[in-house]
Every structure is written in structure tokens, then in C-alpha cells.
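quick q for whoever's on today - can somebody do inverse folding on this one?? i tried earlier but teh output was garbage lol. C-alpha cells:
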């Protein structure tokens, strides 16, 4: 299974499809970990789960 609409290279996540560089989930949550998002580095995938 893969969701090509969600590209992701975080291979340490159990939801990652290593071969396709994408997520296997139908839906993910993306959150901001700073008071205000100013760059991509301010955001995180909150659906990450360690393999
Ligand atoms: S849950 Fe988030 S970190 Fe994990 S594979 Fe999907 S997009 Fe990547």
C-alpha cells in the first residue's frame, strides 16, 4: 500500500513505504512546533511512529 499524494522519505517511520518514498496512510496530521510557522523546519508530521 502507498499513498503517492503524500511524499515522505522518513524511513524510520513505520508508515513509510521505503521503496516508493511515500506514506502508506490515507491521511496524516502536520503540526507546527513553533509559535508561528516561518519555514518548513517549523512543521512536523504528527503521525510519525517509530518502526
Ligand atoms: S506518517 Fe508522516 S513521517 Fe510517517 S511516513 Fe507518513 S508522512 Fe512520513
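ok took a stab at it. sequence:
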Amino acid at each position: 500500500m502507498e499513498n503517492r499524494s503524500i511524499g515522505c522519505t522518513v524511513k524510520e517511520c513505520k508508515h513509510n513505504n521505503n521503496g516508493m518514498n511515500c506514506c502508506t496512510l490515507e491521511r496524516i496530521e502536520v503540526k507546527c512546533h513553533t509559535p508561528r510557522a516561518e519555514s518548513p523546519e517549523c512543521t512536523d508530521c504528527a503521525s510519525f511512529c517509530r518502526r
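fwiw DSSP finds no helices and five strands in the chain. also The first strand starts at residue 3 and ends at 7. so keep that in mind when u check it
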